[in-house]
Fold this sequence. Notes:
This protein has about 300 residues and is of the alpha/beta class. It has helices at about 40-45, 115-120, 125-135, 155-165, 180-185, 250-260, 280-285; strands spanning about 1-5, 15, 25-35, 65-70, 85, 100-105, 110, 145-150, 170-175, 190, 205-210, 220-225, 240-245, 270-275, 295. The protein is about 20% helix and about 25% strand. InterPro entries: ADH-like_N (IPR013154), ER (IPR020843), GroES-like_sf (IPR011032), NAD(P)-bd_dom_sf (IPR036291), Quin_OxRdtase/zeta-crystal_CS (IPR002364), YIM1/Zinc_Alcohol_DH_Fams (IPR050700).
Amino acid sequence: xxxxxxxxxxxxxxxxxxxxxxxxxxxxxxxxxxxxxxxxxxxxxxxxxxxxxxxxxxxxxxxxxxxxxxxxxxxxxxxxxxxxxxxxxxxxxxxxxxxxxxxxxxxxxxxxxxxxxxxxxxxxxxxxxxxxxxxxxxxxxxxxxxxxxxxxxxxxxxxxxxxxxxxxxxxxxxxxxxxxxxxxxxxxxxxxxxxxxxxxxxxxxxxxxxxxxxxxxxxxxxxxxxxxxxxxxxxxxxxxxxxxxxxxxxxxxxxxxxxxxxxxxxxxxxxxxxxxxxxxxxxxxxxxxxxxxxxxxxx
Length: 299
Ligand SMILES: NC(=O)c1ccc[n+]([C@@H]2O[C@H](COP(=O)([O-])OP(=O)(O)OC[C@H]3O[C@@H](n4cnc5c(N)ncnc54)[C@H](OP(=O)(O)O)[C@@H]3O)[C@@H](O)[C@H]2O)c1
């Protein structure tokens, strides 16, 4: 099969023929149609992110949308022909920048029928991050104020909608040209962070997708979630401070599918690239200006 191989730290992403994997017991073999690109991909390529858990030759990528081609012994909930999506194996390698992946069957869920593979492939890691923060960690309630930094990016634009779906009052930060996009997603307030920060101190949940944001906006007793880099430098004794690392999660994917099918969650794909242009996709992502998601097409 064709896959994008990296042979050394920070080395080039090279299209190469490699053996097609075979599913072990409880695994499925998925023909990948689309592989979403996330910041952890380019961080890992360069030696950060999840690089410490990988070995060379390394096949990058975690987000998959595709079709089950074969099931391993013991798999009862998926069958050949099922359209699935997921973020398997994270933080270990999933090797999604390839024509096929194998992974535990329960790291996948049925793909939302209303989405193309490109759209579904854009969702898993970013949407699961947003879901696991807002639902599992914060348990956001109607009327709560949620402040999301980098709200127009991959995680942010989904977090805005997931918070709105739970009845929250949502404030998002982005540069001015992205404010119409955020309003269209349902944000109640938008802040151009280049002109200043949120002025209040009444935020119930602050989702910091930039890293290093001040927790001053959080009300006493509220929650600060540091998404990119942990929370080592955040100091406040009167609030809950939490890092997060997204986990494979079929239940979370099924909840995300339900939000998509009910029209409460849509994914914005900023750019697509053919598999062989994975390096170009990383270069675009590394500009830090992505609105929504970048996806590799692997068919
Ligand atoms: N812990 C975890 O499990 C986990 C999971 C997913 C992602 N992450 C991390 O979370 C971060 C966000 O991920 P992502 O996929 O959403 O990234 P992304 O899609 O690459 O984010 C791009 C967005 O960031 C905004 N941005 C850039 N610099 C900013 C700044 N200084 N202030 C406010 N906004 C800024 C840009 O908007 P403007 O053009 O408006 O600036 C752009 O829309 C990354 O560091 C990623 O590694 C962690």
